Amino acid sequence: MSHVRLTPKRQIVYDTVVQLANHPSAVEIMASLQASGKKLAYATVYNSLRYLTDVGLLQELTVGGTYSRYDARVENHHHVICQACGRVDEVAREIPLPFLRAIEQESGYDIKLADLVIKGICPACRRQQEM
């Protein structure tokens, strides 16, 4: 990727995603900006997120097809998502090569990148369900 120059507003949005580090949604990013006294229009935030994703500075995670979350960690890694509260955590384990080769054999695809999303119930929600 060539050097990307960010406008001041895009830099603010990027810095906010990095600072939050919890895979924030656009709404959470807006709330954080407002809480810190930064006044950016919703359209500016959404357009900045799209741009930052397009140039590879952010990774967009679609959660349940209803909204996206953003991750400033763009190197290959995976995510586990709580189906109860929407919490997103990162998983650093590699996908076993035999599994990927079996998928290639079954599908005919030449797999270049695997981005695994695992869904389940987080520890906090499990504790609440047990009460």
Name the CATH homologous superfamily of the largest domain.
Winged helix-like DNA-binding domain superfamily/Winged helix DNA-binding domain
Which range best describes the helical content: under 10%, 10-25%, 25-40%, 40-55%, 55-70% or over 70%?
A: 40-55%
Oligomer, anyone? single chain
CATH-defined architecture of the largest domain: Orthogonal Bundle
Q: Report low-confidence residues grouped into runs of 5 or more.
A: none
Largest sheet: 3 strands, mixed
Mean pLDDT metric: 90
Would you write up a description of this structure?
One of its GO terms (molecular function) is transcription cis-regulatory region binding. Its cofactor is Zn(2+). One of its GO terms (biological process) is regulation of secondary metabolite biosynthetic process. It is a single chain. This protein is an alpha+beta fold and 131 residues long. It folds into 2 domains: 1-74, Winged helix-like DNA-binding domain superfamily/Winged helix DNA-binding domain (Arc Repressor Mutant, subunit A, Orthogonal Bundle); 75-131, Ferric-uptake regulator, C-terminal dimerisarion domain (Dna Ligase, domain 1). It contains 5 helices and 5 strands, in the order αααββββαβα. The strands form 2 sheets. A 3-stranded mixed beta sheet has the order 4-3-5, with no helix packed on it. The chain is flat and about 50 Å long. The termini are far apart.
